[in-house]
Amino acid sequence: MFVTSTISDSHVRILPENLGKARVEAVTDQLEITYVDKVFPELGFIISIYEILSIEGGTIYPSDGGATFSVRFSVVVFRPYVGEVLIGRLEKSNSAGLKVTLDFFNDVFVPEHALQAPSEFDEQEQLWVWKIDGNEAYMELEEKVRFRVMAVRFPEEPNSLAQENDTHTDKPEGEEAPLPLGCAGNPFAPMIVEGDINADGLGCLSWWS
Amino acid sequence: MRWRWRMGSRESQVLIKESEATYVHFGSTRTSCTACWHPSSQVNTMTVTIEIKHGGLLTNLEVLEVLRSRGADPEVAANPPRARDAAPCEIQTCEALKNGPCQKQSREILQALFTALEGYGLTKAERQQIANLRPATLVEMHLIIEDCEERYDEEQLEALLAYVEEHLGPVEEEGGEEQEEQEEQEIEEGV
């Protein structure tokens, strides 16, 4: 699930108000603001700073009150590899598939073609059912689910800046400004883990214990 | 060895995106309807480079230890003490890991387990998975180990499971406890 990665940032700026702190503390604080709890494309979801390897510099640029450091540090990254088996909780279920949550990471999707064969979607219950040996095994919400990682994708974020500044095209009247990216009406996930539940041992934990 | 040119503030890049000066826009992925969209967190990819993308696998236990040292566990103080509170992702990850098999583990236990598993030729990823998932059945071993049928026969897998049982302890039966509670309630109501 977790991996360490080493990043080098040559422009870590410590605000003037933090220059009184010890160097390592101020730099760590600034790195946490910039990196922790964020998705770094193609790297993963950065959970925490692991260690600071080197801090160099301390340059003060003209008309700048803060000092700029060049820092090499390593971070704990959540980036499951393809084929890794993880255990999550079933959060939502619809005809397109399942949404599983890992409590600290919510964007795990299991598309409907990757479920145990043969599975059907029960419209009334809005749950997926695995029909095996004449039995019906429902995948209830909030159940613990074991899945295998098929892919880890980092979708490009749509160019929100261009949308905001788009005054040239005529928008039809009545259409409101597009919702800000990332809210419920306009969801966007910078990192998506696709899972599959299509093998022995995968699916609800209760099926295999 | 990477060459670096300095032209003003530019440096050569070993990079994620090949296009020039793209701005890396970070977003929080705690929820897909994320409320944490930080325009201020745009970072210039000219100054940020990933030196080592994959520096090594971490077991859940090691991550839990790191998070505890950063103060993400309310029961454990940060060591060394830190200026700001732990980030939400650190707290949530710590919470999620505490409820998993790694809560009962320690470095010594894992070291003993890996020493016991030495002769079996498991890859690092497989050992990490065994430590993280605490497999209890043959089915789980087949999932964790690639080409399981070709590499090991059933006896060897049973031996592996026995080592896991011996070093990592018995499986926590959450479902069993709930069932027992329900049965007790039913008996009380019946009386």
From TrEMBL, chain A:
Q: Which residues form the RNA polymerase Rpb7-like N-terminal domain?
A: 11-65
Q: Which UniProt keywords apply?
A: DNA-directed RNA polymerase, Nucleus, Transcription
Q: Where is the RNA polymerase III subunit Rpc25 domain?
A: 84-208
Its cellular-component GO annotations read:
RNA polymerase III complex
- In which domain of life is the source organism classified? Eukaryota
Q: Name one Pfam family in it.
A: RNA_pol_Rbc25
InterPro entries (alphabetical): NA-bd_OB-fold, RNA_pol_III_Rbc25, RNA_pol_Rpb7-like_N_sf, Rpb7-like, Rpb7-like_N
Q: What ranges does the record give for the region Disordered, renumbered to this chain? A: 158-177
Task: Give TM segment ranges.
Answer: none
- Identify the main location: nucleus
Regions of biased composition (Basic and acidic residues) lie at 165-174
User: One GO biological process from the UniProt record?
Assistant: transcription initiation at RNA polymerase III promoter
Compartments reported by the entry: Nucleus
Q: Family, per the entry?
A: Belongs to the eukaryotic RPB7/RPC8 RNA polymerase subunit family.
Protein name (Swiss-Prot/TrEMBL): DNA-directed RNA polymerase III subunit RPC8
Organism for this UniProt entry: Cymbomonas tetramitiformis
The organism that produces this protein has a lineage beginning with:
Eukaryota, Viridiplantae, Chlorophyta, Pyramimonadophyceae, Pyramimonadales
UniProtKB/TrEMBL annotation, chain B:
Answer whether the UniProt record assigns the keyword Nucleus to this protein: yes
Please name the GO terms that the record assigns under molecular function.
nucleotide binding
Listed Acidic residues bias regions: 171-191
Q: Which domain of life is it from?
A: Eukaryota
Where in this chain does the record put each RNA polymerase Rpb4/RPC9 core domain? Answer: 50-171
Listed A to Z, the keywords are: DNA-directed RNA polymerase, Nucleus, Transcription
The entry assigns this protein to a family as follows: Belongs to the eukaryotic RPC9 RNA polymerase subunit family.
Protein name as annotated: DNA-directed RNA polymerase III subunit RPC9
